[in-house]
Amino acid sequence: MSDPSDHKSPPTAPIEVRFRGGGFAPRPHRWMGPVVFVAVIALLECGTQAGWISALTFPKPSDVLGAFGELWESGLLFQHLMPSLGRLAVGGAIGASLGIAVGVLIGLFSYVRAGMVPVVAAIFPIPKIALLPLFVIWFGIDEASKYALIAFGTFTPTVVATYGAVDNVDRSLIRMGQSFGLSWMSIVRKIVLPGAMPGILSGLRISLAIAIILLVAAEMLGASHGIGAYILQAGSLYDLERLFAGVVILSLLGVTLSAIIGQIERRLLRWRS
Amino acid sequence: MVTFNRRQTMGLIGGAAALGLAAPAIAQNNRIVVGALRFTSHSGSFIAVERNYFAEAGLDVELRFFEAAQPMAVAIASGDVDYAVTAVSGGLISLANRGAIKVIGGALSEEPGIDGQIILASDAAFQAGVTTPAALDGKVFGMSTAGSSFHYMGSRMAQAEGIDLSFTPLQSVGAIIGALRTGDIDAWSIVPHIAKPLAASGAVHEIGRVSDYLPNYQVTTVFTSAQNAADEREKTNAFLNGFSRGVSDYNSTMIDNAGGEDGVNEMVDLIHRYVYTDREREAAATSIINGTMRLNEGARLNVGSVRDQLEWFQSEDLIDADITLETFVDTSYVETFEA
């Protein structure tokens, strides 16, 4: 590569070396999300108004808004929303807390791990909706079977996320705690649980999204009120406006839950910054 | 051995694909898909296929089976199915309002004197004194979904008796039967071939007849896509022609007993090829004979009953209030009557 003629060329000006290792770090663009939403909805509105999207294919976004307004004015919104939120809260709380407890136990004790991991792996892929008739027999057709379905659905992903998070806690920190003579309980409380918290919370995001999905399934049987029941009824009546109004409510619910977990993360994980 | 180079191979593949795509188009002329459920009430279509009535009307019919009426209605709207028979439901009317489907004739009807749909009560409710529909005040009535025919029947019955009834959606017939057995719901109404064995088992009890409240209820209708109804008159008439011959055979054999015992047996054998195929012939025969209800001759349509159903859906705010009978029904194909 070296060219002997280089020796005779005059010395070049020193090259400016900028910092180039910026990585692909995402930067916040708050306005971008709303812009995409508005553009898609405007496109759908134009299409349905002009007729190149038929009434059978997609409802007019303005009519969906109308259906939503109707829900609000008649007070039906809260009649549907309250039972659903109750089911989500009770079912999700049972599933998530049991899941975190079992996950932590799996992470800490080898016997529990050897016994429970195959069990969790076996029940994870079961479509919980398929067990709905069974839950009705076990827990009756009222609220208990709905709680059970949602709890069961959120339990397994929470367990998997939790023991994964416990496994990923920095081993050198634990070793350090041990060599400083910390008791077992202190190590768990002061090192393992805080260290596992980011993983547990991100697992919770997934579990709670699954809980919302299962809400619709849980309200298939014997629910006359609830967002899921409202969506199912609109579907069977082929009432696309109400169907989409219900779907939008579920989406908003998902966004809200995600924001709440974001807040919890900020509070619980303050030690990281 | 014949060897192909790459270009020849591509040519062959292309040729085969072109032929494969063209073949259905060539045969498409009179090829139609008829949707059906595995119920005796769909026997008109089965008989017309088995006895070549569709073929004689110049149609090449493929039967496509569904598990429920709702997906069948959506399949007509999407153009995957051309003609089908199903109960009038809120979903069907909504699809008609969106310009997707039209009702063109009638099929299953309640008729006084023939065992029609039966109102059942759970054992618990029956023991507690619910022995007539009038005693169902404040009780829970099962239905598949809001706006289904069960909802309509229960609601009209409650109105006639002046009682208060609440409705629980359970999605499928299987789930409703389960809930009725356990007493989670108190009552339900269903076609006789399902009701009779249930009542015979003692787990539920017969407490009334739908025909007492809706004497000439037009339970199911023949429907097609709005496009077929408007632009394919010839094909639609040919379908109704073949279908009506099947219906006529069914009525004369199963209800009017024109062929005697042998006729019934032969008809049961034919229907058994489509309905209760997972059961022994003898067990199936009982259910098939139990399920006998009148199918309208010539696919006549009871417009009076259809109007009543439309008005009920509107009064319950299940469908738009401004839907008219004309957007839902095309009366130009068959004879209509009011009863």
Structural features, described:
The complex is a heterodimer of chains A (273) and B (339). Chain A starts with 31 loop residues before the first helix and ends in a 5-residue tail after the last helix. Chain A is 72% helix and 0% strand. Chain A is built from ten helices and no strands. Chain A is mainly α. Chain A has a domain at 97-272: MetI-like (MetI-like fold, Orthogonal Bundle). The mean pLDDT of chain A is 88. With 339 residues, chain B is of the alpha/beta class. Chain B folds into two domains: 30-109 and 217-337, 3-Layer(aba) Sandwich (D-Maltodextrin-Binding Protein, domain 2); 118-212, Periplasmic binding protein-like II (D-Maltodextrin-Binding Protein, domain 2), CATH 3.40.190.10. In chain B, 47% of the residues lie in helices and 18% in strands. Chain B contains 15 helices and twelve strands. In chain B, the strands form four sheets. In chain B, strands 2-1-3-10-4 form a five-stranded mixed sheet, sandwiched between helices. In chain B, strand 6, helix 7 and strand 7 (165-169) form a beta-alpha-beta unit. In chain B, helix 2 packs across helix 11 (233-255), helix 9 (192-201) packs across helix 13 (281-290) and helix 12 crosses helix 13. Chain B is globular. The N and C termini of chain B lie far apart (75 Å). Residues 22-28 of chain B have low confidence and may be disordered.
